[in-house]
Amino acid sequence: VDLRLCTLEETELCFPQVNTSCKKHVRSHSEAMIIYILLFSNSLLTVVLNLLVIISISHFRQLHTPTNLLLLSLAVSDLFVGLLVMPFRILLKESCWILGDLMCVLYYFLAFITVCASVVNMVLISVDRYVAICDPLHYPTKVTKKRAQLCVLLCWLYSVFYSFFLLYENLKQPGRYNSCYGQCVINVVIHVDLVMSFVIPITSIVVLYLRVFVVAVLQARSMRSHITAVKLQSSATVTVKKSELKAARTLGVIVTVFLMCYCPYYCVALSGYYIIISSSAYAFIVFLIFLNSCLNPVIYAFFYPWFRKSVKLIVTLEILQPNSCRANVL
C-alpha cells in the first residue's frame, strides 16, 4: 500500500527526481482535448487569415496606401501571436513548464510585445479612419505613406520598450517569482498594464467612434434639411452618409470585440484572485485574448471588397503570373 501511494505521489509531480518540483494539475482527457483543440484551431486560423492579409497588401500595388500599411502592421503582430505565442500555450502540459526560467520570461516578453503592438495598431487604424471621415479634405496631406510608416515604426518600438519596462525585474532574474521547480510565473504591475494596455486604448477608440457617429448623424440631418437641393448635391450627401455609417458600424464592432476579449482578463486580475496557469478558467481567458488576433483580420479586412478579390487571386495562384501585382483589386 505504501508503494502504491508513493507511486501515485510521484506521478503527480512535474519532475519526480527533484524535491522542489511542482505538482501537476491533472485534467480529464476530454477537458484537455477540448482546450488543445481550441488553441490549435485558433492558432492555425489566426496564421492563415493574417497571412492572407499580409500577402494581399504586400503584393498588390493598388493596396499600398497609408491605411493598408496600418492594416499590414496589425496583421504582422497578430500573425506572431498565432505563429509563436499560441503554440507555446499548447506546450504547457499539466501546469509543468519544461523549457526553463529564461524561456518562460522570453515567452511572456514576446507575448506582451505582440499583443501590445496589436492593440496600438488598432488605435492607429481608428485615428486614421477618424481623420478620413471627419476631415476628408485634408486627409491626403495629413496622412501620407511616410507618416504611416513612421507610426508603424513607433508602434513597434513602443511595444518593445513597454514590454521591457513591464517585465524588467523578471528579465533581470528569471524564475524569481516561481514557488516550485517547473513553474512559469511572472510579476507585473497590473494597474500600469491595465491603464496602458486597456483603459487608454479603449478610451481612444470609443472617443473616436463617438465622434464618427456624431458626424454621421449631422450628415443625416443635413441631408434631410437640404432635401430640395440639386440632385447632384443630394447624391453626394447620401454617399458621404453611407461611408460614415459603415465606418461607424466597423468601429462599433471593434469596440465590442475588444471588450469581449480583454475584459475577462483584467476583471479577474483586478479582483485579486489567483488563477493557476493551467486551470480551465485561465485557459479560457487566454483563449479570448488570442481570439482577438484571429478576429482582427475578419473585422478590418473582410469588410473590404478588395480583400475578397485578393484572396481569390491568391487561392487560384493567379498572383504567380507576371505583372499580377498590377491587377485591379479595387
UniProtKB/TrEMBL annotation:
Q: How does it sit in the membrane?
A: Multi-pass membrane protein
Q: What is its main location?
A: membrane
Q: Which top-rank group of organisms is this from? A: Eukaryota
Question: Known InterPro entries for this protein?
Answer: GPCR_Rhodpsn, GPCR_Rhodpsn_7TM, TAAR
What subcellular compartments does it reside in? Answer: Cell membrane
Name the Pfam families for this protein.
Answer: 7tm_1 (PF00001)
What Gene Ontology cellular component terms go with this record? plasma membrane
* All residue ranges annotated as the G-protein coupled receptors family 1 profile domain in the record: 49-300
Keyword terms of this UniProt record: Cell membrane, G-protein coupled receptor, Membrane, Receptor, Transducer, Transmembrane, Transmembrane helix
Task: Answer whether the UniProt record assigns the keyword Hydrolase to this protein.
Answer: no
Q: Name a GO molecular-function annotation.
A: trace-amine receptor activity
| Membrane-spanning ranges | 33-57, 69-90, 105-127, 148-168, 198-218, 251-276, 282-303
For this chain, the family text in UniProt reads: Belongs to the G-protein coupled receptor 1 family.
Q: Per its record, how is this protein called by name?
A: G-protein coupled receptors family 1 profile domain-containing protein
- The species is Anabas testudineus
